[in-house]
Fold:
Amino acid sequence: MKYLVKLVVVMFAAVLSLGAISTASADKLKVGFIYIGPPGDHGWTYAHDQGRLMIDNMLGEHVETTYVEGVPEGPDAERAIAKLAETGHKLIFTTSFGYMEPTLKVAKRFPDVKFEHATGYKQADNVATYSARFYEGRYVQGQIAAKISKSGIIGYIASFPIPEVVRGINAFMLGAQSINPDMKVKVVWAYTWFDPPKEADAAKVLMDQGADIITQHTDSTAALQAAAARGIYAFGQASDMIQFAPDTQLTAILDDWGPYYVKRTVDVLMGTWSSGDTWNGMGPGMVGMAPFTNMPSDIAMMARETAESIRTGAFHPFTGPIYNQAGELVVAAGEVAPDFPMLATMNFYVQGVDDKLPE
Amino acid sequence: MPDLIIASVMTMMTAATPLVFAATGELICERSGVLNLGVEGMMLIGAVFGFATAAVTGNAPLGLLMAGVAGLLASLIFATLTLSLLSNQVATGLALTIFGTGLSALVGFDYVGETIDQIAAIHLPVLSDLPVVGRLLFGHDPLVYLSLGLLAAVAWFLSRSRWGMILRAVGDSDVSAHAIGYPVVLIRYAAVAFGGMMAGLGGGYLSLVYTPLWAENMAAGRGWIALALVVFASWRPERVLFGAILFGSITILQLNAQAAGLGIPAAFMSMLPYIATIVVLVLISRDAIKIRLNAPACLGRPFRAER
Structure:
């Protein structure tokens, strides 16, 4: 929060100094967003849209934002991105992993447009990447789940086998193991980011198989609601979903993109934008946790302490010893897994995950 | 283990129910000789109007009623075009699906992310608590029973009732039925409307019970599976039930196999329902006589009354 306040102050100063420049140029900077789902998903896309609204609120005098929602990953994405570039958008945020190649392709054709691709790992002169360390929140969730679960089985609804998702599963598992080494995590791959009936099916199946806590890496509230219908606990995803399941949500990982979006927009306005990779976690406030609800106060206290030690950097979720599924030591005791290449390209499960990682 | 089986069967029934609704409706429609490919569109229209009604009024049963009404109204567009204006049924049906997808997205725009009170599973004091059979027989949501009841009614109607015979006569030989003096077009209107209502209810089941929220295109191909089911069932109601449960269970089983860590590629499992459709279609098509015996002879053909 402090970070946010500071950032806001800095940015207002920047905007004020900018006022003189931009009143001269009558045209507003057009900033475009490509969304994988609808802003009303109350999950991933909702969180990005909140970031967009922050730009509107803070820089509305100088900036005009547009979004295109429900853009499938693939050739359609390329068309949608190109359309934004053709219609005068000078800064374009593409907010899903699968937009990586389409973004790079369009960026080549529009060298004077700046692109920002979320959760990807390929940059170019006019393509920057950014992501959040969601795994920090997942570790906390794993600890909570291990404390609360009676069956010792957690159901995990995964989307696509990409590093971000695998990292989340591993962090969750490590968190759970830190409380109870015998915890089991069952994984179902939904192969979609947003398909509520399928997400609900996956949740039901996991509960059928004995999971008494559900967590998800898909974007809708369906899994949480399916858990609520059976009276078990679950975690929200990407934004606070408590209103959909007041007696079910234990906490949720909150994505706070706003400050980053505002900063990058200001960079473009000031002409100081440069490509690069940003990967922030709880420390700078890009990742947060919804209130710890529906749990005893001692568990909430533990969760707060873990989150706080991650935020301050005193603890890293991927601290060794960490073994892979084959039982090989991949991170030595006391060491921390490096961002590159291990965390950024994570393509293996840690010991204890009850699943075979799809190719 | 018995718990897992009971729980899985319960989940399969919920997956089968929207298919039972939509396929039963389409079966009546096709038995009268009309091929309506707009099932997917009518399901979506039912889903969105049902959800919107429930969100605005807070009354989920009323939402379900509206889902049926909305599906019925959508099917009347189709009926007017194909039965009165004699447009091509295949093309009009496809258009209805595309129209329904767009209309539902437009109407649903403001309802994305809204929440409603779901229609809950029933719980009968003593009966639902019986071991094993208690939940299997008395623990579903009310719509599961409604869908089965309607299916049974349709089975009775087609085989035992006078009007059922007339409906079949219209589907098998519209000219003769007309010659005897039956109002062919009117009967087909009624059959199409019933099909629309059932598709609407199937859609309503998705947005009111299955996942109590609205998402664009949430029928996700179930309308097409329902259409395939009618052929799969060779136009016999009891086989519709069997087929719906089969399709529902394949969907659920593939997720179950994953959760159990069986290591079968999920992408392969996702193909199974569609492979099953093709295999069954090939198998039943092999027997040309049988399919001709069961298929309504006038299916898809326009009818113009001649005096």
